[in-house]
Amino acid sequence: MNTPGTGEGAPRAAPANPIVPKSAQEALRPEKGTPPPKRSRASRNQIVVFMNFMMSALVLLILAAGAALYFGKQEFNGEGPSTAATTFLVKPSTGVQDIAEQLERRGLISDGRIFRMGVRAYGNDGTLKAGEYEIQAGASMYDIMELLRSGKSVQYSLTIPEGLTVEQAWARIAENEALSGDMPAEMPAEGMLAADTQRFTRGLTREQIVAKMITDQKQLVETIWARRSADLPLADINEFVTLASIVEKETARADERTRVAAVFINRLNKGMRLQSDPTIIYGIFGGKGKPADRPIFRSDIDKPTPYNTYTIKGLPPTPIANPGRASLEAVANPSKTEDLYFVADGTGGHVFAQTLDEHNKNVARWRAFQRKVVEDEKSADETDPAKSDSTTTNAIKKKN
Question: pTM of the predicted model, to two decimals?
Fold first, then answer.
């Protein structure tokens, strides 16, 4: 006997996952994947979103800054745009920004901002020095920064030769284009400017260089005066400079300055007049000096002035020029001789004598030499009519 539901005739139970027939198109369609997990409330929070944005922006900013720094450094250290060497003036109290703008305007750098940032990056913002600098062609911003930091600016020079008067030196200082500003209101006393070469940078004022020359001369004179011979017949430092100025004008030969000084010292000791031709010239023309084409006439020798040592006793009231170191040293420590006279020898030097007779013979030889020079010039120019008139005129002047 069959149990109900188990016999062959009883219906079968349906399977748990029935197979549903699919068409070919449905069978080829890809099945859906596993869906992503749902975002939490925290991940959707606006603060987190903002922080993510800021981190991304910061990374981009760092990358951009790194790139800018790299290319800026390449530009700062790379060859500059200038094609020729030139000078560049930095005035006192000029800041980095102004310097950068001027450099860019002059075409010496490509970008003033890069120069300014580079200078500050190297810590040289306050170390660039005033002065005039020579910038080489193609100099990089780094090279220019280092040059301005070093202070090695272009040097100019002003030479005041020994024997110039203060007025003549004054004119040279006023005409120097590298100096700035006006001349001082008053000239210093005669003999009080250093006869030397002054080196300076463009922009130094005329007042500053005059002050330096006065200080230099004062120190020089006082130093030499302090170690003078004890038996000099000089009352004070003014007489010392005055005699040194006369020696300066009498000879340019270093090897005979002490001997020329000795002649004047010996004359002062004996109460004799100095009879120095340069004092005649200063008495007539003063600090301007004698014109080159103007000879000394016999009437000039007899003309009384406070400086004419042919007519006055002792020394003139002031120096007649700015004496140099060598003449000051010569007067402070003159040669030990008995010489009382000297006259030109025709070679740029002098011959010395102890007696008037010996001196007169030396003078006669000098005048004979002068006559021969005039005659030789006249003879040489007789074949050239174009020169004959001027030669005759010059001969008359030399005889006088």
Answer: 0.71
